[in-house]
Amino acid sequence: MEIKHLRSPQTEDILPDHWYNIVPDLPEPLPPMKKPNGEDVKPEELIAIFPKKLIEQEFSTERFIKIPDELLSLYLELGRPTPLFRARRLEEFLDTPARIYYKYEGVLPTGSHKINTAIAQAYFNMLEGTKRLTTETGAGQWGSALALAGALFGLKVRVYMVRASYDQKPYRRILMQIYGAEVIPSPSPYTKSGREILERDPNHPGSLGIAISEAIEDAVTNPGTKYSLGSVLNHVLLHQTIIGLEAIKQFELIGEELPDIVIGCVGGGSNFAGLAYPFYYEEIVRGKKKSVKIIAVEPKAVPSMTRGIYTYDYGDTARLTPMLKMYTVGHRYTPPPIHAGGLRYHGVAPTLALLVKNNIVKPVAYHQTEVFRAAQLFAQMEGIVPAPESAHAVKAVIDEAIRAREEREKKVIIFNLSGHGLLDLAGYQEYLENRLRDYEPEKIDLSYLNTY
Fold first, then answer.
1. Which key words are in the record (predicted)?
2. What residues pair up with 417 in beta bridges, in sequence order?
3. Which of 57, 103, 270, 450 shows the greatest Cβ crowding within 10 Å of its Cβ?
4. What one-character-per-residue DSSP string does 244-302 give?
């Protein structure tokens, strides 16, 4: 068997020294954040929750933004650049002419891509004198990443963890606590928004929208505290583009052509954007391969892109955030307790929504049973157990590889294996024991969004 290019080089010079900002390259201007009265949100109005440098990045229209030297050194210490693998055994099993590559972020200390923005956010907060950070987390990848970042920069961290995931994934919670973070199941009695929900439903499973509300309320009511977000906003997606920028260099080093198909899973959009946005720039904006197919994969249980509407909505349940124009199933939507906790968000990043609206990104949705089935096959072929979130991308990859076989086309496919699933084995156990449930809403009420 030919073994050439099973794994790309990982030398330090692959690490980019700038992040890529997609905003100036979008097909149309990005709709501004809005207040409930319809006025645009001004940058200075976000100072209560974010440090100035992150606000500057959020509203920036510069294409490339310099990564500080201290962060570059820390990226290297934490394990960047991450490997690019070719999934030859999976190719052979599927009998496909497609060449399948994956960027593997699970080698990083907390097991996922989330550390890429966590250390950036903690760093800029530390520079401006922040003492404490609050945040939300779904499956726990983001919470554990921010917990580690807080430890590295001497910041206290409180994580509001969606209750369904808090119960399903105790080891994620323990990991956060090892790094020194305080972990609170959400909805909680610690905030007004949490107490109101518990009064209506003491057994509420929680949602990312609720956890965001609690984290923001905590931040704005406690001096010296700022809020950190794991996805959706521009500055978060910006930091993640280090993934795709590395992958482009690695493709060049192994002599591979730019991919025909780019795939990532989507909760809010950070790991998807991290891989896909730099390829969008290289292939579509710079015109190197305009026929590229970009696929965003979501769960059928929370079908924001495939069944939601493109409109202004709040980023959280209690309506504490500005309104963002995005695909959404509504901030009142209660996501079912699927094991892909990081994909249980009611909306998506505004930049991603704009790409979907313009038919540049194709959204697809799957049930969790078929996703776990694909993940098991990938583990048996490649040895890596994907996180349930990343497993959604794996399912789409398999479908595209089979399509390439049927159409006899030698497609090049890349996807972001954004994290490992070694702390998600309870979900795999339910799948292996045939206890895993599929969820898909029969009807999604979005009528109330018309009032905003």
1. Amino-acid biosynthesis, Aromatic amino acid biosynthesis, Lyase, Pyridoxal phosphate, Tryptophan biosynthesis
2. 104
3. 270
4. HHHHHHHHHHTTPPPPSEEEEE-SSSHHHHHHHHHHHIIIIIS-S-TT-EEEEEEETTS
Quick check: 293 and 261 in contact, CB under 8 A? Answer: yes
CB atoms within 10 A of CB 433: 8
**Same CATH topology for 12-16+81-111+240-443 and 50-64+113-234?**
yes
Instruction: From residue 340, give the alpha-carbon distance in Å to each of 112, 335, 337, 387, 424.
Output: 13, 11, 8, 8, 9
Contacts of 3 (CB under 8 A, 6+ apart): none
SS3 194: helix
- The arrangement of secondary structure in 50-64+113-234, i.e. its CATH architecture, is 3-Layer(aba) Sandwich (3.40)
Extract the tokens encoding 329: 């199933």
pTM: 0.94
Q: Rounded CA gap, 449 and 152, in Å?
A: 41
R_g of the chain computed on alpha carbons: 20
**132-137 and 99-104 as β-strands: parallel, antiparallel, unpaired?**
unpaired
How far is the C-alpha of 91 from the C-alpha of 45, rounded, in Å? 51
Helix/strand/coil for 433: coil
The candidate with the shortest Cα–Cα distance to 265, out of 364, 379, 138, is 364
The answer to whether the CB of 141 falls within 8 A of the CB of 419 is: yes
User: 12-16+81-111+240-443, what's its fold?
Assistant: Rossmann fold (3.40.50)
Under a CB-based contact definition with an 8 Å cutoff, are residues 434 and 416 in contact? no
Q: Hey, which residues does 306 pair with through a beta bridge?
A: none
Residue pair 128/439 in contact (Cβ under 8 Å)? The answer is no
Characterize the bridge pairing of strands 18-20 and 64-66: antiparallel
- Residue whose C-alpha is closest to residue 246's, from 70, 9, 61: 9
Per-residue pLDDT of the chain (452 residues; tens, 9 = 90+): 344 456 777 889 999 999 999 999 999 999 999 998 889 999 999 999 999 999 999 999 999 999 999 999 999 999 999 999 999 999 999 999 999 999 999 999 999 999 999 999 999 999 999 999 999 998 788 999 999 999 999 999 999 999 988 888 889 899 999 999 999 999 999 999 999 999 999 999 888 788 988 999 999 999 999 999 998 999 999 999 999 999 999 999 999 999 999 999 999 999 999 999 999 999 999 999 888 999 999 999 999 999 999 999 998 888 888 999 999 999 999 889 888 888 989 999 999 999 999 999 999 999 999 999 999 999 999 999 999 999 999 999 999 999 999 999 999 999 999 999 999 999 999 999 999 999 999 899 898 886 55
